[in-house]
Amino acid sequence: MKIPMQWIKEYADIPVTAAEYQDAMIMHGTALEDYEEQGKDVQNVVVGRILSVRPHENSDHMVVCQIDVGEEKPLQIVTGAPNVKKGDLVPVAKAGAVLPGGKVIKKGVLRGVESCGMCCSGPELGVPEYLYPSVGDKGLLVFHEDYAPGTDVRPILGIDQTVVNFEILANRPDCLSVWGIGRETAASLGTAFCKPEIAVQTVPGRMEDYVKIDVTDPELCPRYCARVVTNVRIAPSPMWLRKRLHAAGVRSINNVVDITNYVMLETGHPMHAFDLAKVKDHHVIVRRALEGETITTLDGKERALTTDMLMIADQTNATGIAGVMGGEESEITEETKDVMFEIAAFDRTNIRLTTRALGLRTEASGRFERGVNAATCREAADRACQLINLLNAGDVIEDVYDFYPCPKKAQAISASVERINRRTGVAVSGEEMKRILESLDMQAELDGDTLTVQAPAEREDIENEADISEEVLRMYGYDKIKPTQLRGETVPGKRNGHMKVSDKISRILVGKGAYEIRTFSFFGPKELEKLGLPVADRRNDAIRIRNPLGEDTSIMRTTLVPNMLETLALNQNRNNETALLYEIAPVFEKDGESELPHERPILCIGGFGKDVDFFCVRDIVLDILRQFGIEAGLKRSAEAYLHPGRAAALFAGDDVIAQIGEVHPAVAANFELNKKSVVAEVDLEKVYACRSDMQHIRPVWNFPPVKRDIALVMDERVMVGAIEDLIRREGGELLEKAEVFDIYRGAPMLPGMKSVAFSLTFRSMERTLADDDVNPLMKKILSACLSDFGAALRE
Amino acid sequence: MDIQEQLKKIQDEAASQISRIRDKSALEDARMRILGKKGELTMLLRSMGQVPPEERPKVGQMINAVREKVTAQLEALEQEVKKAETAKQLEKETIDITEPRPHVTAGSMHPISLVLDQILQVFTGMGFDVVEGPEVELDHFNFELMNIPKNHPARDAQDTFYINDNTVLRTHTSPVQARTMLSRKPPIRIVSPGRVFRADEVDATHSPVFHQIEGLVIDKDVTMADLKGTLDAFAKALYGEGVTTRFRPSFFPFTEPSAEVDLTCVNCHGKGCRVCKDTGWIEVLGAGMVNPKVLEMCGIDSKVYKGFAFGVGLERIAMLRYGITDMRLLYEGDIRFLEQFRED
């Protein structure tokens, strides 16, 4: 919200610089984004009187003027403006002047004639027509009052304000007003806040002679205040008012409309002005919309209404949406004679729901949504009438309509000085607290430890002792809080179990050269489709976001694979040669009747490039599982997005704990992966469930081992893992280790055959083994290999 | 030549021979020539028959003395030769220590994880437990229990993704606080890290998915000064002793009093620079004393207990810590970006 400092100063003194003001306000709780000195944009521009005008010898559209700028000698200025007239007063930018946009004016020669400055138009000075009415963009701005040449043009044109840009906190709608800010300013700077004395000069008259008002829904409209001005004299507003509105970002229209905007900015109360001649039957009804009713709003749209919406209506039609938008018919025009000001309070939740439902937001609705105080409606109405008096814009009639069936009672809050100090951790005396609260326009009584506080009606955010403590602390100074250490028992904190699992996995993966990525928790149906999952796959049943940013971020992910493949593709696209990446994050599964989805933690690994293949990722995953005491079994995977011949499902018991494989070529093409890529998903919930603590450590056996190497020839389709398992089973307790050390394909073996060499280590923990111990075991192993897999000893 | 002269000659010659020996075989030759079965000293000993018996003990002693001396000289020489040969061998085995070899380079955790880990270390050290909660959350926990009722304007500050009327993508990790207060008895000291969501388009400083860590302390005697002490300790642990906090009044529906917390600019140490827009401070945290309404809604007697809470955006911490200026780098996963990180 923009407010000129000069306006605030009218009600609260600011004896410091703008920069100091900014600091003080921020440190005492009024956020202030920045401030702008309007005058900085326009420098060294003065009033000049055109003494003479002669044609330019080398141009048919330019003229050469002698202009008195209050200096010893007139300035010679060349201009192409169409409205140059001897004797006029115009703004003159002298050499060295600055204009909006940082433009600097220099002495120059225009077609051979020296020009020592520039005569300016309104737009060139950043002065809109409504701020200083002249000729607009049709030529030089011409002053219509008499000023001494050389006078600074900024105060004349209304561009001499220091505009402060406040960021009002959500709990302080009262500060969306000059008075609210004034109150904070005075308390923050230790000056006094003085609202104007509000007195209205009236002419006799009764409301019902002008208008009949019926409020039918006191719940949605707790207060409706109306005053009538007759003999309205529509005219432009005076400069002081125009420039304040302009600085606050509001366009000046005419005196009556400007007063409504001015009062809104000053008091925070949105106002509406009706031209009573155009109110049908002079009857205003505040009621809920009827079933099936519609209204055409100022933007020309016909809008369907619901019975939850509050309308301003005449006897037949709704003419405006209460608190949101007025009706076009009753707008103020040059011909308006009788005006009714409406200053009402509407239920903020209802206004919010209405604006949401209609997709219609206005300055007024924004204020009503945040909260407009019912208690101060009358004051605002009177202030508007006072301004009517001041501007001589009409005659205010004496009678007032004020529907306020349940006036808000001011609530006294009882607070303990000691408890406040024990909350804030500072030591402020009861007297000091009283002083601070009074500086904020609150009434405060101190009785021993007890403070009894009554906040002004506008401060609806003050409800309890905690609120009082904040008021005290922020004015006393947050910077006076001396840090202290927490007391009480200090047991070291713990990370939770799932986090310990993912931390450990992270460390293992980092050791193996992987880099962690973090991608978004949502993707689009298209990304999911690219995996080619079967229609019935659960992962296709993703949770939809009702209001996503876009289709590609519209569903919660049910698998981490698409984002991983996209990340791999990005790296390939950017010619990164190798990448081994992982992500640990939940996937979201619909969970029966439960309102919340099941969030299953998943580890996803993906990679491509040198040394990154199926086996590499498989071994990483197996290693991780082993680190949790899980010995997983391998089976071929049936995951649709994996290469059917190069993918494994890892089992812990009967449960699939991981899927690993080369990306299916069709899926790779969908994701624009041009290098062979591997991806794995590990179900960390299962890892968490299946993990076992470390067992007792075995002693180290010192009896010598017996080693036997064998090479077995077998069909290519026999899986090495199966043979390994068999050897381990047949080798029994004495077989300490069975390791594959070579796999050979080629002559002299037939195609489709392979030779797998194992190194077997036998050892007893009780004695030195003899050949006689090992030979029968070897025989048993070999015969089992032959009978179960047709794997024969290679001669 | 009498036997003494011969002895003298043998001794002198041995000394001069030994001084010239450089390798093992010459050494062995010398040993054989002097001390061997047919060596000069051995032969001399054998000629003892010609020495008159009364002189034999004396001559014998002389010969033995020379023998010992030569043996010692040879042994010393042998040590030297061995050393030289080892040195030669080592020299031969020298490798080019800069030659590259295939190997696995350690990777790294994500910068968000790195700063989170550091922060968790600080807070677990101060006795905070780490608690996590769901990312898809009930409106009740995310908003209602945080004193942000339905249709309250405070909801505007947090552009929320909705699944349905009752379910949202959590806009902060505060619902974890609510869940904890409802399930644990005070005293409570927890931090809750995690992903949070706001309907913001992606740009250099915004992302619809980002990370937060929030802390909550509930006890009988907790003050705003304790909050400042805790956050000071956190700031120093993360950025060094020279860093302090500055509290500014603010508003959050779930705390009262509330504060925006600035840290001494980590870039210029408070002198003023581009990063802190010449203020010397950077806004990093939101914090405050837990609103008694929140305590009551979460089943904690606000007359007996008080608490403080704070929240930090991890992206902000990571970006300041590592000088990252574009948030998008954090989520796109370019390996050239990720490769630059390592644990502190």
Q: According to CATH, what is the class of the largest domain in chain A? A: Alpha Beta
Give the chain pair forming the largest contact, with residue counts: A-B, 91 and 89 residues
What is the CATH level 1 assignment of the largest domain in chain B?
Alpha Beta
Distance between the termini of chain B: 84 Å
Number of structurally distinct domains of chain A:
6
Q: Structural class per helix/strand content of chain A?
A: alpha+beta
CATH topology value of the largest domain in chain B: BirA Bifunctional Protein, domain 2
Q: Could you say how many structural domains of chain B there are in total?
A: 2
Enumerate how many helices of chain A there are, as a single number: 21
- Rg of chain B, Cα atoms, Å: 42 Å
CATH architecture of the largest domain in chain B: 2-Layer Sandwich
Beta-strand content estimate of chain B: 15-25%
Q: What fraction strand of chain A? A: 25-35%
Overall CATH architecture of the largest domain in chain A:
3-Layer(bba) Sandwich
CATH homology superfamily name of the largest domain in chain A? Phenylalanyl-trna Synthetase, Chain B, domain 3
What are the main properties of this structure?
heterodimer, A: 795 residues, Phenylalanyl-tRNA Synthetase, Chain B, domain 3, 6 domains, 21 helices, 38 strands, B: 344 residues, BirA Bifunctional Protein, domain 2, 7-stranded mixed β-sheet, 3-stranded antiparallel β-sheet, 12 helices
